Amino acid sequence: MGALERMMMRKGDRNPIQKAVLLAGTAAASLMGAVAFGGYAKGRSVRAQAVVALLWATRRRRRFESAENLKMAITKNRMAGAAPPPKSVKRRWDVTEEQHHGARVFLVRPKAVAPKGTILYIHGGGYVFDLIGPHWTIIAALAEATGAQVVVPLYPLAPEAAYRQGFALLEHLWTGLTAGGAPVAIAGDSAGGGFALALAQRIRDAGWAKPAALLLFSPWVDVRTNDPLQAEIQPHDPMLFMTGVRQAGEMWAGGDDLQSPMVSPIFGQVDNLPPIAIFIGSSDILMPDACRLRDALASVGTPADFHEYPRMFHVWVGAPVPEARIALGDAGAFLKRWLHGGA
């Protein structure tokens, strides 16, 4: 078990899904062995195989399979609220909370030393679900790798709000974070990845201080979610289903054009952006749009690192699997390079 997994398994920090995943992965490795279970031969580790099996068994994507399921899942999510920072994060970093524009914003800072830059982290959840436990895993890994402070806004969610309210908060945060001239990177997963790209485009167009880098995990860059290739991937995606994902995007648009760059940033200009790293799994229905973004960036010469993980699922970087350690290591190195002057 690696350091990241040990952190997630500490008493009081683990949630039932993480615990089940870890136990399932260990059992699979012990009982069946890497070769018998497929190991990396089929593109996924033993632990990742166990995670995928658990996701299918618990019908994780059910919340996106119909409008009624999505509505019920949103109601349940509001009752639960955002996942608080776990004890392991509080032990390792100073964690404080502020209020900005009526929204909660977490600040995760190194203890006893000055932070080396800032990461604005925008969490995923289809723009309708709040921050969950695995997001803290990603946040902690990036903080550890870079020595930066991580700013985590709990932005307004749909359907109670729409993208304009979300942008009002993040634009306010951005101007404050960059006022002193220190480097600030933007990172996000899923909807947060799409939001991160849209925010970077907005920052460029407004002439504000440019982000040091842009890190996107499984980014959702076209809320229409109507690519025929997505329908081909859908039977293999244990996390997402096109019907509900598209409806969540419509909620975030709030009646505006789904092809507005502030809603679907793939339709915005992608030149004059900071260095970008994209991480995507091939069993994710968002894969085709991530490839479209990669190709658009290449066409205008915007530097971009594209990391495709065979048969990995949506935002696997938050799961206790070897592929997450590898991806988070690469992501952390990417951010560190640009936050520390591009060295």
Order of helices and strands: HHHHHEEEHEHEHEHHEHEH
User: How far apart, in Å, are the first and last alpha carbons?
Assistant: 32 Å
Secondary structure: number of strands: 8
Low-confidence stretches: 1-17, 19-41
Please give the count of helices.
Answer: 12
CATH class: Alpha Beta
CATH H-tier superfamily:
Alpha/Beta hydrolase fold, catalytic domain
Average residue pLDDT: 90
Strand order of the largest sheet: 1-2-4-3-5-6-7-8
Question: What fraction, in percent, of the residue positions are helical?
Answer: 40-55%
Largest sheet composition: 8 strands, mixed
Can you put this structure into words, describing what you see?
- The protein is built from twelve helices and eight strands.
- A hairpin with a 2-residue loop joins β1 (93-100) and β2.
- The protein starts with a helix and ends with a helix.
- The protein has helices at residues 3-9, 16-37, 46-57, 67-80, 87-92, 133-146, 163-177, 191-206, 228-233, 242-253, 287-300, 322-339; strands at residues 93-100, 103-110, 118-122, 149-153, 184-189, 214-217, 276-281, 304-309.
- Strands 1-2-4-3-5-6-7-8 form an eight-stranded mixed β-sheet, with helices on both faces.
- It is α/β, with parallel strands linked by helices and 343 residues long.
- It has one domain: Rossmann fold.
- 45% of the residues lie in helices and 14% in strands.
